[in-house]
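FIELD: query
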Amino acid sequence: MHYLHQEIEEKWQKFWAENQTFAAQTTSQKPKYYVLDMFPYPSGAGLHVGHPLGYIASDIYARYKRHKGYNVLHPMGYDSFGLPAEQYAIQTGQHPAVTTRQNIARYREQLDRMGFSFDWSREVRTSDPQYYRWTQWIFLQLFQSYYCKDCDAARPITELVECFEQEGNLRINAVCDADTPQFDATAWKEMNHKEQQNILLKYRLTYLAEAHVNWCPALGTVLANDEVVNGVSERGGHPVERKLMTQWMMRITAYAERLLHGITEHGEKIDWPEPLKEMQRNWIGKSIGASVNFQTENGQNIEVFTTRPDTIYGVSFLTLAPEHELVESLLTEEQRAEAENYIRISSLKSERERMSDTKTISGAFTGSYALHPLTGEKLPIWISDFVLASYGTGAVMSVPAGDERDHAFAKNFQLEIPAIFQDFHTQEAAFTEKGNLKYINSQILDGLDYEEGRARILQEIEQKNIGKLQTNYRLRDAVFSRQRYWGEPIPVYFKDEIPVAISAEFLPLTLPEVDEYLPTSDGDPPLGRAKTWAWDTVNNQVVSNDKIDGDKVFPLELNTMPGWAGSSWYFLRYMDPDNSNAIASDEALQYWKNVDLYIGGSEHATGHLLYARFWTKFLKDRNIIPIDEPFQKLINQGMILGESAFAYRINGTNQFVGIAQKDNFVTDAIHVDVALVGKSNELDIEGFKTWRDDLKDSEFELVEDKYIVGREVEKMSKSKYNVVNPDDICEEFGADTLRMYEMFLGPLEQTKPWNTNGLSGVYGFLKKLWRLYHNADGVNISDAPATAAEQKILHQTIKKVTEDIESFSFNTAVSAFMIAVNELQKLQCNKREILTPLAILISPYAPHIAEELWQKCGNTESVALEDFPVFDASYLVENTKAYPISFNGKMKFTLELPADLAAADIEKAVMQEEQTKKFLGDAQPKKVIVVPGKIVNIVH
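FIELD: result
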């Protein structure tokens, strides 16, 4: 009886869907376990075999936990707002919602085919108005909150207003803009409504502000730092420049210390990979130092932040960020042209690119000078893009003797390098160590060591009122505006140029229709094209723009939210996706709490994962949810690499040479669709010529009538034509084969290459497994008791697989299954006592064949909820011992005897053995030496 994978998989996928086998119950008495994958953006290309790696791992664990008696929540949804759908809309005019629905249908078809145990009744889509209603609601909660430093938590903005009315802000200890003025209650009451609202914007956790942003002209929108790679947009590779714009911002900096505390060994115990936590720590970038004021010659103040105030006597120049607000006023006519050109070039680099480039030395002199606050010396003022306006004060005091970057800068531009460390030649290199130093040429610090010098200079700085002790963070407030159509509308209208929140009861504010998805001719975002995009404050509804009167009808916000908005809280919505009164019920929030296991890529470390932690802490502050961290355990799955194929074209011709000849010519390597390459790496030449119009006239240098392509392992990508479609694998080998093969490739966290040829081995294993339960005539399962050898194989496998799943070592469990089936096949085992638990054991990995085999064993319910087999150590205890039987010290045969037999009984059994009689013949033994558990030696 043959293993018909397609028939079996279709049968059980239909069964699971019809019976809602994997639906989680919020009211269950079972312990809960919440398994979540980072939900995908549904692209038009669909899934390739690299995408399901994490999904398979999480599904194995979710199925295992169900077997172990847990009520498992394992949902799936779609991060369905995104640039690709909008770019397609710009090109074709098709509404992004239509494209998104089509792409989701394709994803769902592929996901279903792979047998994932998702609870589809809880599916969410971030572009669904009933979902983004609650994203908008969270925005409103942030808008109506401020951060109280005294209670170290977000509080309602109404409390702040009450304080202002009673005593102003003189005693308020809250996070606010640096330029927030101080005022008493009288001054507050004398302000008009607009002035009061502008003050409140300086405290709100989401607010409008002028900010330097990553502007991408080709995409017509602002991008987050994590969406810019090497100076271009992550999607599309378009140039990005720094630009000052009015933007909605999220005051994530208020949570910097708490975000840092949660990922330190002294903070909350979240089980995340250390490299990922280190990425977040570096991104938050806590620094303890001092702010120091330097006056320019014309009286302007430049505030710098330094972590090494002890080196202040070694300052030989100041360096400002090119976008620093004082730069324009500092440029002299002689230096203006050079400096402005440098500023223009710097604006084309993203902050991330500037932070990561530690080798390039560049800058421009402003022509102006500042005065050293302690010595009065003149210090030249430079600009350089290694200084960021968004970090610290956007200005640094440069100490070539104590900083490698400053030293290289000074050497490059021939600036002074004052020596301030005893016995160290700072003309050759910077001295960056803090121990074993003594200061020289440092006035009050001369002869002191680091600890003494730091304490003394901080005292001096504060006594002379030229600075203060300060803690800084590299983390900046998050830009929350996108100049795009396909995103959540921001639920705000403008009255007298002041943002006013739409009441939550009138949400969702849904996207309007537009004639095009491009910015307007005036440069407004695409929502500026909407003819019906104004808010009627009387009827609380969207009305036509021509009704705007500045009295009752006002213009709505034209920007939309960023892609990370909907993904920052989606894990909460899965708990209660149909709730129309709250993001989720208190009952659901209390039961499910946070995600127990989260699997996804490390590329989200400083984006999604940081923003989700921020929003979670905020929602906890406002008593909306009971948790402070969203994801308890996090695993970053590795990448499955594709095997690309290359054809080599001689430069300037249409002539192609093979891999063996390519080094004899100057060639371009052209990516070839792997579908055009056979198993022996032979190219389908005719297929290649018809593949692309520009290749139709190609000519090939053949070797033995073949053209052999080159091969290289690299990232699996549509642009590299090395994508393998999981649909094809499921068709030929089955989803169970795909699932087990992806796990078999190696440890989950590691990057590994894909090799389609390896699938046949796993497929062969599943056919072997099938044959354990069948013979040529059909099902062949015996009710005879299992032998000790069979029980031993089963329980060895139970032990190994249980340990491997618990430790997420999914690859080694696959090996254990293969060994077990091979050994059971050698024993010709068909015992129900063995095969029934074996079907449960393998079901997390190969659920379709497991369901079928479970049914063949006579069961009528799904295997998915059966108790996982329990390891019994007694089956691994050896009950017999194979004794080597020797005659005069030479071993002649072995004899299997009970392991607990006494020496006298061993001797008796050996002497009665026919083979003993044969070897002794007529001779009488002189002595029988018995070592229980080891040997028997007969001396004759």
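FIELD: remark
Residues 788-806 form the longest helix (19 residues).
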